[in-house]
Design goal:
The chain is α/β, with parallel strands linked by helices. It has one domain: Aldolase class I (TIM Barrel, Alpha-Beta Barrel), CATH 3.20.20.70. Helices cover 43% and strands 15% of the residues. The protein is built from eleven helices and eight strands. The protein has helices at 14-22, 35-41, 43-51, 66-78, 92-102, 122-127, 134-147, 160-167, 194-200, 209-212, 217-229, and strands at residues 5-8, 30-33, 56-62, 83-87, 110-114, 152-154, 172-175, 204-207. Strands 1-2-3-4-5-6-7-8 form an eight-stranded parallel barrel, surrounded by seven helices. Helix 5 links the parallel strand 4 (83-87) and strand 5 (110-114). The mean pLDDT is 95. The structure holds cytidine-5'-monophosphate.
Length: 233
């Protein structure tokens, strides 16, 4: 089986990061560096992960004028990361600039668009001027990403089925908000189990605390992978 799990490394210093990545077998997962960790450590965070043998999703959700966004994506490519992302709401010109800049690079990460943050509901969308239903907005933004040549989107697992049907088999769906049945939900509300998320069409599952806060992160990872391969009951 491929490695669908991306472990969210929500730590903020080099020591904690080294300790954590040393406990995560690169054969079982990839890792995600987000804004907190990258703002605290910068490229050193990527170097530590690469040094431990991990492929990195650099989750900085770039959203800026096209040239600035493209230069940021190029800088991410030059760090050698496996995947990075931009906000689809930056618009077609920004998405195309971000994609096009990678053509000139020797290493090109997967480029993923953020549709609607799962922290936003229909009421919150209204306050930023979006009055159509949330799922319509997600589908529209994913369509924009696809026509600009992006490799896929970040989305809620609850939107995965509709996106898979609309965008086709090759479009990459990355889903956070994942919780095994045996794990605490923490502050996530619309949670989906790993197996359900995969069945709904997700390609990659972003999972943080159920792995990183486990007594033995490698055991928690192995348990999730086993449940994906062998459904309970
Ligand atoms: O610990 P947990 O599994 O909740 O971590 C999920 C990770 O995915 C965190 O890094 C969080 O910021 C990120 N994320 C999320 N929901 C989104 C987008 C990103 O939980 N909609």
């Amino acid at each position: 089986m491929s490695r669908p799990i991306i472990v969210a490394l929500d730590v903020s210093n080099a020591r904690a990061l080294r300790d954590l990545v040393a406990k995560l077998p690169p054969t079982l997962c990839r890792v995600k560096i987000g804004k907190e960790l990258f703002t605290a450590l910068g490229p050193e965070a990527v170097e530590i992960c690469h040094g431990a043998g991990h492929e990195v999703f650099l989750d900085l959700k770039f959203h800026d004028i096209p040239n600035t966004c493209a230069m940021a994506v190029r800088a991410a490519a030059r760090l050698g990361v496996w995947m990075t992302n931009v906000h689809c709401a930056g618009g077609q010109a920004m998405l195309e600039a971000a994609k096009d800049v990678l053509a000139g690079e020797s290493h090109s990460p997967l480029l993923i668009g953020v549709t609607v943050l799962t922290s936003m509901d229909a009421a919150a969308l209204q306050t930023v001027g979006v009055s159509r239903p949330l799922e319509d907005q997600v589908l529209a933004l994913a369509g924009l990403a696809q026509s600009a040549g992006l490799d896929g989107v970040v989305c809620s697992a609850q939107e995965a089925r509709a996106l898979r049907e609309t965008c086709g088999a090759a479009f990459c769906l990355v889903t956070p908000g994942i919780r095994p049945a045996w794990a605490a939900s923490d502050d996530q509300s619309r949670i989906v189990t790993p197996r359900d998320a995969m069945q709904l069409g997700a390609d990659y599952l972003v999972i943080g605390r159920p792995v990183t806060r486990a007594d033995e992160p490698a055991d928690a990872l192995a348990r999730i992978i086993d449940e994906l391969a062998h459904p309970p009951g």
